Amino acid sequence: MTLESVKPEAPEAPQLRNPPLAGGGIPGLGHGWKLARDPLGFLAQLRDHGDIVRLKLGPKTMYAVTTPALTGELALSPDYEIGGPLWESLEGLLGKHGVATANGPTHRRQRRTIQPAFRLDIIPEYGPIMEEEARAFAARWQPGEIIDCTSESFRVAVRIAARCLLRGHYMDERAERLSIALTTVFRGMYRRMVIPAGPLYRLPLPANRKFDRALADLHLLVDEIVAERRASGQKPDDLLTALLEAKDDNGDPITEQEIHDQVVAILTPGSETIASTIMWLLQVLTEHPEHAAKVCAEVESVTGDRTVAFDDVRKLSHTNNVVVEAMRLRPAVWILTRRAVTETELGGYRIPAGADIVYSPYAIQRDPRSYAEHLEFDPDRWLPERSKDLPKYAMRPFSLGNRKCPSDHFSMAQLTLITATVAAKWRFEQVSESSDATRVGITLRPHRLLLKAIPR
Ligand code: HEM
């Protein structure tokens, strides 16, 4: 008898189950049709089928996570990386070498390069630019003018990101071009993502040509920004200088392609998400005049009769709560994906290596199990005494873990400042040609928000 043979047997690993298949699939098509037709409604009802459910998208299986706790576990676990069809199609836009799509050591190195520009203690340095842009945003309109909120929101979002992080001269013309390019590109990317009909998108059709032109202009703009900086010979202490001086793991300068992709990877999420959120904030100020008036009163109580300034932001707690509540109900980033790098376990279920996993901040942030009166716009739910009982991870519009948005403080500061500046000066009415219905794309935003500006 050997020693081996008397060794007690290792306890058997508990048998992991496969997550249940979500109901409502259509034979042959699975859940793809429903997901494409009504993605928000479809993802929100999955919680009734289980904490994790399997979805069939044609021959492919995807896993959907539906509880706040498990989305937190997913985002914090090293067993998953950025990947999946969403990111693969975004790579066509963002490039393969930018921080938003890289994984592993490259991603860690790139985060180290960009992170200092977003540190909490650095944000006040951007204060004067944010202030100037918020004031210019609110000063552009004439009483009674009809505002096209899409182009207005994009303009201010692009200008703030570009002026703060890339310290360039961002005239309206460039912001406009970037906004048009991004709108077309994001719309086209989303279509390509939900209807992956490869060769069809290469046909010389007007829509394809428009998409190709917009994508080319986006990349041209980024090249212009980088070339202009180099030609200036200046090295201001900003994100662009950090990128131009970054070294790879061997200590060599990073490639031109990586610099380009990094600028794209920062400018694109930096403008589309902020612009969409500003549109929703304008919609909220219109739909809820009582909260708009409360924001205005708060601004007055903090500033007296001077214009709101960056330093006031931390005192504007109701305004901040309005921003957070708008982001809860209308999160710009409404869907996130991960890919399992190894076979693993989540919520007691087996997740195979290579599995694509999806979850929706929109569904999580509207879950009636987390939020009383879950569809009500109620900024006071963010008062400390009320928000303390919320389930962990029930509100993470910037995600968490190693892929958390680096720009959470930068974004909240500008969104609060813009909301306060605008609400102190204007009331809004929606005009008959306007549509504030939710338009689902890579981000969520109102379909075509047109508002009449009325001085306060
Ligand atoms: C990543 C949300 C604004 C740059 C992310 C992610 C979310 C997010 C949810 C994580 C994605 C994931 O977990 O897979 C938002 C929201 C914004 C916002 C809601 C505003 C309302 C910005 C701005 C910038 C920015 C202004 C830059 C100027 C980035 C970058 C990443 C990212 C570079 C990739 C990070 C990485 O993968 O390591 N954002 N974002 N975002 N965001 Fe934001």
UniProtKB/TrEMBL annotation:
Coiled coil: none
Keywords tagged on the record: Heme, Iron, Metal-binding, Monooxygenase, Oxidoreductase
Region (Disordered): 1-24
Basic and acidic residues compositional bias, start-end: 1-10
Binding-site list for heme: 405
GO MF terms held by the record: heme binding; iron ion binding; monooxygenase activity; oxidoreductase activity, acting on paired donors, with incorporation or reduction of molecular oxygen
Cofactor(s) the record lists: heme
Statement: the UniProt record of this protein carries the keyword Repeat: no
Family per similarity comment: Belongs to the cytochrome P450 family.
PANTHER family: BIFUNCTIONAL ALBAFLAVENONE MONOOXYGENASE_TERPENE SYNTHASE (PTHR24291:SF50), CYTOCHROME P450 FAMILY 4 (PTHR24291)
Protein name according to UniProt: Epi-isozizaene hydroxylase (Cytochrome P450 hydroxylase)
Organism (species): Streptomyces avermitilis (strain ATCC 31267 / DSM 46492 / JCM 5070 / NBRC 14893 / NCIMB 12804 / NRRL 8165 / MA-4680)
